[in-house]
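quick one: pyridoxal-5'-phosphate bound model?
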Amino acid sequence: MTDQTSPGTEHWQERFGAAMMRTLATPLAMLVRGEGCYVWDENGRKYLDFLAGIAVNSLGHAHPDLVAAVTEQVGRIAHVSNYFSSPPQLELAERLKRITGAGDAGRVYFCNSGAEANEAAFKLARLNTAGGKRTRILSLHESFHGRTMGALALSGKPAMRRAFLPVPGGVEHIHTTIEALEEAIDDSVAALFLEPVKGEAGVIDLPAGFLRRARELCTRHGVLLIIDEVQTGAGRTGAWFAFQHDGITPDAITIAKGIGGGLPIGALVTYGATSELFSRGQHGSTYGGNPLVTATSNAVLGVIERDGLVANAARRGEQLREIVARFASPRITEVRGRGLLIGIGLAEPVALPLAAAALAEGLIVNAANESTIRLAPPLIVGDTELADFEYRFGLALASL
Ligand SMILES: Cc1ncc(COP(=O)(O)O)c(C=O)c1O
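yep, here:
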């Protein structure tokens, strides 16, 4: 294996500072390769990756099936434009209809990221007008749906929007309580957007019964229930999609991240009559659903299915919770999330120094907010990696 260490990774922080847009903080390390649940930096230092590119690398790094799928497809045909289809595109659309439970009436729109999937869903919501009567779109405080203008409008974080106003109008943010749902939903609402677990807010679970009540109210008032599964989807929470834990059927879901295993892909999946809202020419994307990314996604989802990784996410998630409980640390107040999307709640706002201490011990985790450490390891995680996590995170906790 040749490491991409030279020429020129030396002084990379300065090069990053000079060449990259100032939208990003200086990165923590320069990573040059990965294998399984581990990555290496340019100095050959090894890290246990318990973030997986923020819930993206479902199969870990350089998984042989992923490598084979990309290599095979890029050598065959990588891109065809929307004037043509390709076998992997249709295979993926049909696969997604199956694993999302969208069934025969379901339809899939492909794009390239989570934000784009939510942009498509935003436009879908605008089509649910009921002859102009439905003008309101609801979303939750503290939610995160992406950084493009429509996704910003949907996101419940005003500070993120402030410098970029005006964003598309008509979106109201409500509190994440059943009472707030009951108060806000009526026949003037076109759609309700929500995350089943608010990942970027700090891995915050929905209150018990919230999703079912949302489904009841949306059905009663003709409101589209649109679930953002960008972070929670593709098996991460121990179900193919997190809404499935609650036994409800949404009207649409948005997905990205973990279905691509590292290649950029997003999708909007619709259910039932919602599948008939878009008509020809109303939306599109040059790259969306191209053969390279869809072949890769077929391989990722195929391995998740073949190797029982959805069940592994559930089981390993439980084991991780047991490990966190074993630390018996007064710094840890609670563990949130589901499956392999875990938020470790801290008594004090020390998530940033704790994540830095973990990195110094060769462990990648992240501070989802100032008092939450987020864990989102690859779905392939096993006994060895869990033991390694226990050792390294234990050292990080002790070093604080
Ligand atoms: C729930 C959710 N929706 C949307 C997005 C945006 O996805 P992307 O960064 O691919 O645009 C994210 C990204 O973190 C997310 O967690």
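The chain is about 35% helix and 20% strand.
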